[in-house]
Amino acid sequence: MRRSLAAMIAFAFAVACKDSTQPPLHLIENGSFETGDFTSWTTFDAAGSAGGFIVSSDTVMPTSTLVVLEPPDSTFAAITDQGGGGTHVLYQDVALPANRSAALHATIYLLNTAGDYVIAATGGLAFDGGAANQQFRVDVMNPGAGVTDVSAGVLLNVYQTQPGDPLETGYLQLTADLTPFAGQTVRIRFAEVDNQNFFHVGVDAVDVVVN
Fold it and tell me: Rounded to the nearest 5°, which phi and psi values hold at 33?
């Protein structure tokens, strides 16, 4: 029996829709640090900095000896530890496909033992030079910008601590729409600066999901 024209059109439309559906992509590699190290990530510590990001499964920091929350996603998380002032950056570059939507997901944790958060008057990430600076920020960056840039190289500021914010948090879920940057390579940057007292920043479960 010959199919009706309407049935044939409906079948062709269903096949076309099915063929055009693409599975989600997960672009961040080692987003939960389950390799036990910084495989696929890059870390940066400004000259003269004390400490930096480490990958840890412990709840007691090796340098400060302060107690922090255990990693929320599997065994490991990246977290800052220090014995003095410093500027510390953790980042990974991702190439976003054209014509598809994308979103950044990350989980963060803060334990700031200074009396408050402070953003230097310059807005920058320098820990030296005499200005108080105790902050953490998450940015979507132009990969060609300087690793500590906070001006034109920042395509999207996802999160930044502000004076008066809670000094200790549970793990917080961050989400940001990356669709406006489809077809570009972007840098996902986590940046912490401290020169007031110990400041532990945990990062875990980082992913860029493309649909």
Answer: 60, 30
